[in-house]
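QA checklist item 7 of 12: single-chain prediction sanity check.
[x] sequence parsed
[x] length recorded as 478
[x] structure emitted
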Amino acid sequence: MKLGWRYLSTRWQFFIAIAGTSLLLVAIVLTGVRSYFSYNFTEYLAAQERERLSQVALVLGDYYGQQNTRQHSQPAVENNNLNQWQQTLRAIQRDVFFNPDKLNLDTQLAFTQLHLITPSGDTVFGQPIENAVSVAVIVRLSQVGSSQGEPKVVGHLYAPRPEGANAPIDEVFQAQQASAFVFAGLLAVLLAALAAIGVSFVLRKRLLALAKVSRALAKGEYAATADASGNDDISVLAGDMNALANTLAISREQRRQLLADVAHELRTPLTVLQGDIEAVQDGIRQADSKHQARLHQQVLHLARLTEDLHQLAQADSGALAYQNELCDVSALTKQLVDGYKNRAAQSGLVLTYNVVGTPYELFVDPVRLQQALTNLLENSLRYTAGPGTINCTLDFTNAEQVSWRLEDSSPGLSAEQCTRLGERLYRPDSARSRSSGGSGLGLAIVRSIVKSHQGSISFAPSPLGGLSVELRIPRGKV
């Protein structure tokens, strides 16, 4: 069995991702709360220890003051030396043995270690304590004959900072808090797992719906659609799949139509050829020059259709070679238009050529560009009725692109018909007939060439009454 993230089902991937993220957040929050509680609880215990220590400091201060009251040589505050503290400690020891009720100390006032120092830093008793809590030993001047009653620090008392609970109630509280944290953690894990299951179920359901649509598309069922409601990435993906299905449906319909149109286009000249040849074989018609010209015309039509289909197939597969180079498109277009003026005149048409703006060279394939312009001119000459007009304008006014605009006179096309121009084998029945010699693929070839140059082409009714074609190619290299 293969292991790894990629080999897990989507359900498990979602569950692990969502549950893992939730558990991580829960762990971070609980750790923070636990640390905050531990810090505050430690400070609480330290405050309790100071409270206990302050009772001892109060007794020491009272005894210190009493000893100085007995001495009238100088104020007590100024006589807070080691000798005075030694007398104070002896007095306390004496009362501990002979008058214990006088001390009135709490039975819970037991310390593992104490350290007392004078304000100047001299040690009275005990050893220095690391990580200690401390209280000041205070004596009031009034205790030694002064009426001001101002407090004065005569020493500092230290005790070890507690590392655990001092009283049973503290231990109970700490245990309760630990249990509460465990319960909250387990509850958070359970809720995270349930949320992960719910979210993963919803997401997986939507992905399975997309998978179902993709399998339908793979089978050619392009009518299948996905629910694209919403703004999340899955909805966007569903919308893209719907657009893909629509494109595939249109492509299939166009392919079917193309096959039908190609079969129809081939059937007509082949039927004519078959009928004429059989007529000669049956002796109905003579194989004279007129008859041979008729056969030759049908063969040429087949050859043009075959060549156009071949070029389109090459363009679709990317096999149509392009040799781009800097080209004087103005001179190329003028030479091409001049070559068609005599033919236009013979058909009663006036062919004009105009340049707008300052000409500049364009990075194109001159052979393919000439082929596209030739197809456009052939299209106009073939379908424009004489007397008429054909205007070719080359526009350089846009610094980003060059545009060719070819406008001819009647017969014209509707806006709806113009939108279909460039489709393969499409010919408007009203003005584009098969008898005129076109294969219906010329404009499709032009569109393919323009697209390969990163350009665009559009068709619209002409102000002259016919068709207006605008071809645009960007100035930059392609």
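[x] summary fact logged: The chain has three domains: 5-169, 233-315, 321-474.
[ ] second reviewer sign-off
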